[in-house]
Amino acid sequence: MDDHAIATLSLQCSRRFMGVKRDIAARTAAPDANFPEGFPTESLSDVFARFLIWVGNIGALSRGKASLDQRIRQSQLRKEIIRLLEQMSIVLGDCMSYVAYHQFKHSVS
After folding, report:
1. Is 103 helix (H, G, I), strand (E, B) or coil?
2. In total, how many domains does the chain have?
3. What is the pLDDT of residues 6-34, one digit of tens each?
4. Cys bridge to 78: 13, 72, 94, 96, which one at CB 3.0-4.6 A?
5. What's the predicted TM-score (pTM) here?
């Protein structure tokens, strides 16, 4: 397992959160915006804010001895955090695909 897996995955999730937010903003800014009902745009912003607080408070993006990766390197907890970050990254990737699909679907209709 990568010595910086938590930091790497936390950065990947942050980038995906920003990508989803950017894509939603671009989609909803269109003059004829018709974003699908039920997509939790406000909840996404709240979750991203909470994620950034967690990342900052726990040192998930830190390197060296202060990093979360190093502080819990021998713990089962590290494996669980990595698993959860991997799942979050997958879900955020699915969100990006969903938004992109609806952008494309709208542009061809």
Report:
1. helix
2. 1
3. 999 999 999 999 999 888 887 766 655 56
4. 72
5. 0.83
